[in-house]
Recover the amino acids of this structure.
């Protein structure tokens, strides 16, 4: 059994973060965020202002989970860059989600959403922990060829 | 003359970044981004997909500058968190910008925009350099009291 490289450990931590969201597991999610008096965490949900500190960040996830019946993340374009004890992950979150059931008891309508995220992790004795998450909606066309849009 | 603290140095680097944008100074801006074979930089403009690597990132700024006649950033809510050789900055970019002049020669209409940014810096022998910039539009109401929205 070979030990995981830093890159692999970080990618695993990143995947674990999204899996906790999918399960609506606030305890697991809380444990993935950095904790310490000098470590001010920050979080930006798509379209939201900046949230700073464990209190506001974790409350926002409790609120989102309370209003989300179903959510699944298909991650693409995952890139990991490690420098000493900090790691930078960017990825595209292809999200499929649904709100709480209607009064009729049926699941709310499923909605697809394209979000890009920058996640910053720090190495700790308990593994890589989230220092910052910034997700934002992709509003422009993504034809993978931005050069085509350059004025001639 | 007292030396600047890490926090002060980082805040200064962050300010310098926005000043280079305001001046449309692509050379200065390029010099503020981390450079090195192992340092993969990433950048997300509001509503854009992720750009990775100096080539794509700097081309995007050239494109934005070519289409921006006037831009001014009023930074608020600037928070700086430093851990060893990495620093995390979050801020609100209150942007006032205008496109290129119309054919009549008049300046295009000025547009206000509310953007939040997470900027990650790394300490180098040449000062703090940008490793990542992620800006996103604020689409929800910012009443500073997210708790009010919590379901009873």
């Amino acid at each position: 059994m070979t030990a995981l490289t830093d890159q692999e450990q970080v990618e695993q931590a990143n995947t674990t973060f999204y899996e906790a969201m999918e399960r609506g597991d606030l305890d697991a999610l809380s444990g993935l965020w950095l904790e310490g008096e000098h470590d001010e965490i920050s979080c930006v949900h798509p379209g939201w202002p900046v949230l700073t500190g464990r209190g506001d960040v974790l409350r926002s996830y409790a609120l989102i989970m309370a209003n989300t019946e179903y959510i699944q993340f298909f991650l693409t374009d995952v890139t990991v860059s490690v420098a000493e004890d900090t790691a930078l992950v960017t990825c595209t979150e292809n999200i499929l989600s649904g709100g709480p059931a209607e009064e009729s008891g049926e699941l709310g309508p499923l909605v697809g959403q394209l979000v890009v995220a920058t996640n910053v992790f720090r190495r700790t004795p308990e593994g890589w922990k989230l220092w910052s998450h910034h997700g934002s909606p992709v509003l422009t066309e993504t034809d993978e060829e931005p050069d085509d849009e350059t004025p001639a």
